[in-house]
Amino acid sequence: MSSLIHDLAAICGPEYVSDKLVDRICHTRDCGPNPGGVPAVIARPRTTDQVREIVRLANRERTPIFVWGRSSTFIGHGIREGCILLGLDLMNAVEKMDFDNQTITVQTGAIWHAVDVELGKRGWELHVPGSGGMFVCTVGGSVAYNSTPHGLAEYGMTGDGVVALEVVLPNGEVIYTGTAANRAAADLGFERYANGPDMAGLFIGSCGVFGIITKVTYRIRQKPEAERFAFFGFDSVDAAVDAAQALQRRQVPTHLVQVFGGQRPIGVAGEAFLHVVIRDGRAAADERLAAARSICSAFNGIPLDEKATERYWVHHMYSWLRNTPPEVYYSDRPYTCPEASAFVPTQRVKDAIRYLLNYEKEHAAEFAQHGIRIKAYDVYYSRNAAFMWIDTLFPELDPAAWQYGLKMRADYSEHIWGAYGSPGGILAPLAPHIMPKLGAGYDLMKAIKRTLDPNGILNPGILGMKLEAGQ
Ligand SMILES: Cc1cc2nc3c(=O)[nH]c(=O)nc-3n(C[C@H](O)[C@H](O)[C@H](O)COP(=O)(O)OP(=O)(O)OC[C@H]3O[C@@H](n4cnc5c(N)ncnc54)[C@H](O)[C@@H]3O)c2cc1C
Predict the structure, then answer these.
(1) CA gap 376, 247 in Å, rounded
(2) Which of 84, 103, 206, 216 has the smallest number of Cβ neighbours within 10 A?
(3) Rounded distance, CA 259 to CA 270, Å?
(4) Is residue 175 very low, low, confident or very high in pLDDT (cuts 50, 70, 90)?
(5) Regarding predicted confidence, which is higher, 79 or 349?
């Protein structure tokens, strides 16, 4: 046994450390198309103190750590060959449900949906419904990535629900954010904006480059009395976008999702579609539903069967209209998703869609040659803008198709991010290309990283900068 593994076993217990090849190979990549390095060892701590000890050991040994929630992102992690893979799955306790302060405190590796189910038994729910990966993803990973829930409008991004964090810094120190930072009143994780600048914000969306989130205190709410659904088809993408903007302005939807493109079920009228989900007290929900119907009609929306929206929202159907079987898209699996996504201003959704449809037309021969499939283009509308999700699938076991898929992702990204958008998170493989567009903001991130992590120990592959040994 090497001394690294011996030391990790002393910290976590030998049963929670593995250097078996099969375990290491299973921890090399996320759901996206980019391969990663094979870690030297998997360590599964159960407490914050064990995480601290591992971080200190990594600094002493100058061995990088990669933080693994459930690796359900598509961002191309940048796992380093020979790193310590820090698996957080055993840190999954719900520590406190605080209905007075409307918060829940969980260890970082708790699965999003499992926490929501526990709250649901008591008539409560997490502040956001979770991303499409909620059945597997962890609370800590979702906060660290700041994932985009399906349908954003009223509840916002994952990070919007954070009240307080416990974080192990790259030097092994532990900090608390918000009201929880006052350790004289250690139980008081009830307000994020306390004691000066928003320290939680530094870690939300940072993909673990600044610290390891070990506990999250998150906002919860009582489940609303009523849910209402509306589903509209539009003759043109532009009309659907205009209707979406009118809905945003009146703050009608709780969630608002547009789908277009892909293979659609026969007999459904329209070119682009809006799913509207409204959650509120009964009377208010009915009023908002009436407003949604009148706004969509004003833009010549065609009312469609709202059961499709209900299936999408309540039963989490994950396909074009959330009511078609997955075989239509995947059949001879495995197919992979290049995961190009971006925030764009609402009106620019029209330009992005035009670009994507033209791309499909201009590259029809290559799409056919490589077996590229378009599942759908989704737009999750936030309160004032839009988040686009480009589900163009390619068969990942075919090397030529895989290369083509990566090129496609680079083309989409270059166009949308170069002209009017911003990526949803940090994508390691595209970071060297995208992050410099942030100018002095990126310089600041690098400076913070160097200050907090001079040895380049924590998730060094992600920010697109050289970090090892203080470079
Ligand atoms: C079917 C499906 C649908 C999906 N739909 C969506 C969607 O709608 N919107 C969306 O945004 N994403 C979506 N995803 C991607 C993914 O599920 C989410 O982004 C999820 O929140 C990631 O959680 P995770 O625990 O798997 O994090 P991971 O993938 O393990 O980690 C994400 C990043 O954060 C770091 N990290 C993990 N845990 C911590 C921690 N405790 N402290 C510090 N850093 C940490 C990791 O090193 C990595 O860089 C989907 C995935 C699937 C499989």
Answers:
(1) 22
(2) 103
(3) 11
(4) very high
(5) 349
Is 226-419 the same fold as 94-222? no
Q: What percent of the chain has pLDDT over 90?
A: 62
> Alpha-carbon distance 306 to 274, whole Å?
10
Pairing state between β 65-68 and 41-43 = unpaired
Higher per-residue pLDDT: 266 or 202: 202
What do you get for the CA distance between the two ends of the chain, in Å? Answer: 31
- Residue 269 burial (10 A CB sphere; 0-12, 13-18, 19+): exposed
Residue 329 pLDDT: 54
Half-sphere exposure of 3 (CA within 13 A, CB side): 5
Q: What pLDDT, in 10s, does the model give residues 184-193?
A: 876 678 999 9
For ligand 1, the distance from its centroid to the CA atom of residue 137, given in whole angstroms, is 6
Question: Cβ < 6 Å from ligand 1: which residues?
Answer: 30-31, 67-73, 77, 88, 108, 131-133, 137-138, 140-142, 144-145, 147-148, 150, 207-208, 212-213, 459, 462
CATH topology of domain 94-222: 3.30.465
pLDDT over threshold 80, residue 123: yes
Nearest CA to ligand 1 atom 44: 208
| Domain boundaries, given as residue ranges, for the chain | 94-222, 226-419
pLDDT greater than 90 at residue 376: no
DSSP letters spanning 209-274: SS-EEEEEEEEEEEPPSEEEEEEEEESSHHHHHHHHHHHHHTT--SEEEEEESS-PPTT---SEEE
pTM for this model (two decimals): 0.94
What the block records as the tokens of 413 is 């990204």
Q: Residue 314: phi, psi to the nearest 5? A: -80, -40
How far from chain centre, in Å, is Cα 153?
Answer: 16
* pLDDT, tens digit, 9 for 90 and up, residues 26-36: 999 888 778 88
By most ligand atoms within 8 Å of CB, the mutation choice from 28, 47, 73, 107 for ligand 1 is 73
Query: 316 in helix, strand or coil?
Result: coil
CATH number of 226-419: 3.40.462.40
What is the distance in A from the centroid of ligand 1 to the CA of 244?
27
If pLDDT is split at 50, 70 and 90, which confidence band does 335 have?
A: low
pLDDT at 338: 59
